[in-house]
Amino acid sequence: MRKVVMMICSAMLIFFCISCGSKPAPEEPEKPAPVVETPKPEPEPEPAKVDNGAALKGIDDARKLALDSGVKEYEPEKLQAIDALYDKIKAKSDNGEDISADSKDLADRYAALAAYVKACKVNEDIDDTDMVDLAEAMYDKGYNYLLEYEDLFNDPNSTGKAQLEKANSANTTLIAVYAIIFKQMTKDARADALLSKKDAESVRAQIAQKDKYNKAVDLFKKGDSAYTMMAYDRAYDNYIDATDLFDELYDDIAEKRAAALKKIEEAKLKVKESEDYALQADKKAPMKTKLEGIEDEDAVLLEEDDYEDPSKAEADLPETVKEAIIGDDAK
Fold first, then answer.
1. pLDDT bucket at 32, cuts 50 / 70 / 90
2. How many CA atoms lie within 13 A of 274 on its CB side?
3. Interatomic CA distance for residues 258 and 251, integer angstroms
C-alpha cells in the first residue's frame, strides 16, 4: 500500500514538473530606445572686420591732390567716373572687407587724372607759343601719351597703375618740350631788352634819368644771373621788367625832347620875326650910338658846354649770355 502511495505521488510530481516546463516564460516588455539628443552646433564667430583706415586715407589724399590740380574744373566727367568706383570701395569697407588692393588702384587712378590735367595745361601753354618746331618730335611723343591715357581711361580692363604710368609720361615729356621753348623765349626777351636799352641810350637816358636807367640795367644783370643758373622763368621776368623800364625811359625822354624841340622852333620863329622887325626898323631909323646892355654880334655870352660824353655813361652789357654747364660739358 505504501508503495502504491509513493508511486502515485511520484507520478503526480513528474506530471507537475512536465506541466511547468512546457509553459513559455512571459516576454519582458521592450525597453524604449534611449533618446540621443543631437548637440546644437555652436554659432560661428563673426569674421573680424578689417581696419581700412589707412587705405581710405590714401584714397582721400590722392583725391585731394587731384582736386588741387584742377580736375574738377578741367575734367569733371572723368572725376565723376572715378568717384563712382570710390563709392563701391567705400561700401566694401563699411562691410568690413579688405580694400587694400582696391585702394591702391583707385589712388593711382586719381593720381593719373591729376597728371593728365597738368599735361593738358602744359600742352596749352606750348600751343600758345607757336614754337613747337623747336622740339617737334618730342612734342609728338608727349601728345601721343595723352591720347594713350585717354584710351586706357575708357578701357574697363585697364589698371590704375597703367593709367598713371601713361599720364606721367605725357606730363614729363611735355614739360621738357616747354622747357626748351621757354629757354628760347627767354633768349628772345633778353635780345628785346638789349634793343630797348639802345633806344633809351639814343635819347641819353643814362644821363637824363640815370637812376631809372641804372635800375633797368640791374634788372637785366639779374636776368643774366638767373639764366646761368637755369632759372629761366626768373630770368624771363627780369628781362621783361628791364625792357619795360628802358621803353618807359625812351618814351618819356623822347616825348619831353619833342616838346622841347617844338618850343625851340616856336622860339626861333619869334626871334626871326623880331629880327625881321628890328631890321626893318633899323633901316628906317638906324641907331648911331651903342646902347648899354647890348653886346657885340661876336661876343661870347656863355661858356662852352662841357657835357659828359653820353657813350661813357652807357652800361656795358654782353650781347650773349653764358649757358649753364650740364653733364659731360662740365668736364
1. low
2. 6
3. 10
